[in-house]
Design goal:
Strand content: under 5%
Organism: Allochromatium tepidum
Radius of gyration: 24 Å
GO molecular function, one term: kinase activity
Order of helices and strands: HHHHHHH
Distance between the termini: 57 Å
Keywords: Kinase, Signal, Transferase
Shape: elongated
InterPro entries: Dihaem_cytochrome-c (IPR018588)
Helix content: 25-40%
Protein name: Diacylglycerol kinase
Number of strands: 0
C-alpha cells in the first residue's frame, strides 16, 4: 500500500483549520444576533424582548425636569404613573423636593409624558403605582418589576455605595447612552468599576 503523501496531510490540516474558522465565525455572527429578536428589537439590558424607549423630544420637559435629574424617557413608566407624578400635589412634594410648575408647563409636560409612555411602559409595572399618600408613594422607575430584575445582581457598593453614582435613579451615571434611551449592556460603564456583564 502506498504511504499517505505528506502534501495530502497538509491539505487536510489546512482544510480542517479553515472549516473550524468558518464555524467559529458562524457562531460569532449568531452571538451578535442574540441582541436582536426577530423584529429587530434589542434584547440586551433593561428592555430585553421589548422596544427601547423613545428618546425625549420635548424641549420643555428636557429643560424643566432635566435641569434637576436625567429627563427619563416617557416609556419607562406607564401613563397612569406619569399622571400620578404630574399632579400639582405630587409636584409640590416631588420625592422630597418642590418641583411645582405653572399650569401651562405642567399640562404640556403631562401631555408629552402620557402620550409617549406607550409600548415599553406596558411591560413596566411599578410596585408603588396606585398607592395614595406622599412622595414615598409616588411611582418610581426603580420600583418596577423589570428594573429590579435587571439590577438584582449588581452589588449596592457599586451604586448606592459608590460616590460617583449614589443612587439607582442616576441611570446616566452607568448607562452611557441612557439619555438616548439606549440601556444596552454594551454601554454600561460603572464609575470606578468598569463594564458590567450579567
Amino acid at each position: 500500500m502506498r504511504p499517505f503523501p505528506y502534501k495530502s496531510v497538509l491539505t487536510l490540516l489546512l482544510t480542517g483549520t479553515l472549516a473550524m474558522g468558518t464555524v467559529h465565525l458562524a457562531f460569532a455572527d449568531d452571538d451578535d444576533d442574540d441582541d436582536d429578536d426577530e423584529r429587530g428589537r434589542e434584547r440586551s439590558g433593561l428592555f430585553e424582548s421589548r422596544q427601547t424607549p423613545a428618546p425625549v423630544v420635548n424641549a420643555t420637559y428636557s429643560q424643566e425636569c432635566g435641569s434637576c435629574h436625567m429627563a427619563y424617557q416617557p416609556g419607562l413608566l406607564p401613563p397612569q404613573a406619569w399622571a400620578q407624578i404630574m399632579t400639582p400635589e405630587a409636584l409640590a412634594n416631588h420625592y422630597g423636593d418642590d418641583a411645582s410648575l405653572s399650569e401651562e408647563l405642567r399640562t404640556e409636560i403631562s401631555t408629552f409624558l402620557g402620550a409617549d409612555a406607550s409600548d415599553v411602559s406596558l411591560q413596566m409595572v411599578p410596585s408603588g403605582a396606585g398607592n395614595a399618600g406622599g412622595a414615598s408613594a409616588l411611582p418610581r422607575i426603580t420600583d418596577s418589576v423589570d428594573f429590579k430584575r435587571e439590577h438584582d445582581e449588581i452589588p449596592a457598593r457599586l451604586v448606592t455605595g459608590n460616590p460617583e453614582v449614589g443612587s439607582f435613579s442616576q441611570c446616566n451615571a452607568c448607562h452611557r447612552k441612557a439619555a438616548e434611551g439606549n440601556y444596552d449592556e454594551r454601554w454600561i460603564d460603572i464609575p470606578g468599576h468598569g463594564p458590567w456583564k450579567d
